[in-house]
Amino acid sequence: MRKIKNALLIPVFFGCRVVSLFSGDAALSLPDPDDGDPLHAKAEAGDVKAQFHLANEYFTGTPGRRRNLTLAAHWFLAASDRGLPEAMFNYAVCLDRGWGVDPDPYLAAEYYRRASESGTIPQASFNYAMILKKGIRLSGEEQEKWARKKHAEIEVDEKKAAEILEQLAEKGFAPAKTEIAEDLLAADPISPRNAQRAFLLLSEAASDPRAPAKTFRLLADCWYGGIGTDPDDEKMIGSLRKASDLGDVAGTLKLAWCLENGLKTAPDIAGALALYAKTAEAGIAFGQYKVAQAIEQEKYRDPQGIDALEWYSRAAVQELPQACLRLGELVEEGIGRAPKNPKMAMHLYLRAAKRGYARAQYKLGQTYLRQDPEAPAGFDPTAAVYWFRQGAQNGDTPSMRALARCLLDGTGCDRNRGEGIQWLQQAAQNGDILAEEQLKELH
Predict the structure, then answer these.
(1) Which of these three, 184, 214, 242, is where a domain ends?
(2) pLDDT, tens only, 105-155
(3) What is the domain-level CATH number for residue 72?
(4) 62 in helix, strand or coil?
(5) How many CA atoms within 13 Å lie on the side-chain side of 165?
(6) Of 101, 186, 206, 248, whose CB count within 10 A is highest?
(7) Are 199 and 160 in a shared domain?
(8) Structural domain containing residue 194
(9) What three-state secondary structure class fits 65?
(10) Phi/psi of residue 62, each to 5°?
(11) HSE-up of 58 (CA within 13 Å, CB side)?
C-alpha cells in the first residue's frame, strides 16, 4: 500500500458523535472541476495522491477551495478504493461522525479495520480495537434503522481488542496505554502488580502529547489513593487540573469537588463554582445541579440569567436523583417561581427513589403517610414502610427513624418492638437527636 508523507489524518477516538451541518452521500453527482485546476484534474484521472490531497483541501478549506465535507468524503473514498490507508482512516472518521456522508457505524468499523491492516496508523487500530471491545452502541431508534440495512453485525471480541491494545502500547501509543491502565484500575480488588503497571502506563502516556485527557484523571486517582505509587496531594490536584484543562468532564467535576470541600487542597468556592458552571454549560447533570444549588443559596449568579429552577429542571430531565428530589421539594411547596404541584413532586420523588437515592425514598415514604384528602398518593402506610425500609437500608438516617416508628406503632406493618428499637439505635448512633429522644421515652 502506498504511504503519503505529511498526510492529514483526522484525529478521532471511537464513540465520538457530532451533528454535522453537511450531509449527503459520496455517490452524489459532483460539479465539474474548475478550469485550470490541476489537482482536481489529476484526481479525476485517478492519481491517488491527488485524490487524497484534494480531499484534505475540501476538508479543511483553503484560500482557493471552499470547505465542503461532502466532496472531502467523496475523495477520501476514491483514494480508499485505490488502497491508501490514510484515506481509509479519514473516510472511516467521516462515516463515524457523519461528515459529508450519512453516519454509518458499521461501515466505519470496516474502514477502521482496513486502515489498521497497514500497521502505519495507530489511531485506526485503536478505534477498531475499541469497537471490538465495546461493540457498536445504538439507541432504540438507531437499532431499528440499522436492522433494515444489510450490514454484518460487529461482534464483540474483547480478547482480540486486548491484543491490539497491547501491541499499540508496546509501540508507545499513549491512548492504548491509558485504556489498558483504566481496565487494570477497574479491577476490584486490584493486585499490587497491576496497580504498579497501571501507574507506569499512565505515567508514560502522560508524557506523550497524544495522551487523552482521561490519562491525567486516572493518574490523579493513583496519586490520591496511593495506587501503584505513594500518595501525593499536590500531584493529584495538578493532574486533575491538567485533565480539566484538556476537557475531561469527570476530571473537571472531581477538581471542582476538591476545591469546594478543601479536599487535598485549599478551599476555593469561586473556583469550584466556575468549574461546575463549565460542566453545566456542557450539559452535565451534576454540574447543573451544583450551579442550581449555588444560585438558590445566593452564592452564584448565572451570567445568562438562568435561575435555579431551570438548572434543576435540566438536571432532572437527565434523571439526576439529587435534582429530582430538590425540584420535587420546590414544586411540592410552590417555592419561588416553582408552581405548586404535589402530584408532580411525588412523580419526581418516585423517579429519584427508583434510582436508589435514599433521601428521596424517605420523602416518598412521607408522602404515602399523608392523610390529607388532597395528597396525590392517598394514604398508603404499607407503601410508606416499603420506602422507609429502602431508605434505611441505603443508610438514610431519617428513614431509619421513620421505619422504627412504623414498626413500634404497627403502622403499615406488623408491630415489632425489637426491630423498631434497633433502627432507632442505628439512627441515634448516626447523630439523629429525635431518635435519641424517642429511645429515652421508650426506656
Answers:
(1) 242
(2) 889 999 999 999 999 999 999 999 999 998 886 665 665 565 545 455 677
(3) 1.25.40.10
(4) strand
(5) 23
(6) 101
(7) no
(8) 173-242
(9) strand
(10) -135, 165
(11) 26
